[in-house]
Amino acid sequence: MASSTERPLSLDSAFPCPICRQGTIEAIVLTEAFACEFCRHILSANLAQQQVQVVDSSQPLTWGWNGQRWRLVRGDHAQELSMLVYLTAVVLMIIPAGLVWLSGVLFPPLTPTTGLSFSSIWAIITFTAHLSVVLWLIGEYYQIPLYVAAKVRIARSRYSSRQ
């Protein structure tokens, strides 16, 4: 038996945004699509399957409405793609930092140092820089709600400071 709080996905109602989780999505007039008033993403609606798909992003993510909240719908090749993304991320972080560290080991400085050597510090900086780039790319690729909300808030604060 369905709960009294459950409601089907329809173009007549507003729903929480599955992308940013901050705003609400409402139907765009004369279309079968929704738009978020906070993050401004456009989502095409499949009312028969109770799903929406983001159409203005390079990653076509799909969410299903279960009557109360959204759940991410995984595609057929989602697991393969996720493994490829994670493997690429690890390679982008480990290889450059490893090469910097290895060069410091193979070609040590002429003067002895105590504590961390320059090459070890440089390897840590390289790893941290590549980690930040990988986190940014993963946030953009998967449209992580916390990342999207922060990006929208930064854009809004920049826009309001110009006026």
What are the salient characteristics of this protein?
single chain; seven-stranded antiparallel sheet; elongated; 17% strand; 163 residues; 2 domains; 7 strands; 44% helix; alpha+beta
Question: What is the strand and helix layout of this fold?
Answer:
Layout: E1 15-16, E2 24-27, E3 33-36, E4 42-46, E5 51-54, E6 62-65, E7 70-73, H1 78-106, H2 118-142, H3 145-162
Antiparallel strand pairs: 1-2, 2-3, 3-4, 4-5, 5-6, 6-7
Q: Total strand count, please?
A: 7
Strand ordering within the main sheet:
1-2-3-4-5-6-7
The amount of beta strand, in percent, is: 15-25%
Would you identify the regions where 5 or more consecutive residues have pLDDT less than 50? none
Tally of alpha and pi helices: 3
Structural category: alpha+beta
Radius of gyration: 23 Å
Q: Main β-sheet, in a few words?
A: 7 strands, antiparallel
Q: Can you write the helix and strand succession as a string?
A: EEEEEEEHHH
Number of domains: 2
Molecular shape: elongated
State the end-to-end distance: 53 Å
Q: What is the percent of helical residues?
A: 40-55%
Mean pLDDT: 85
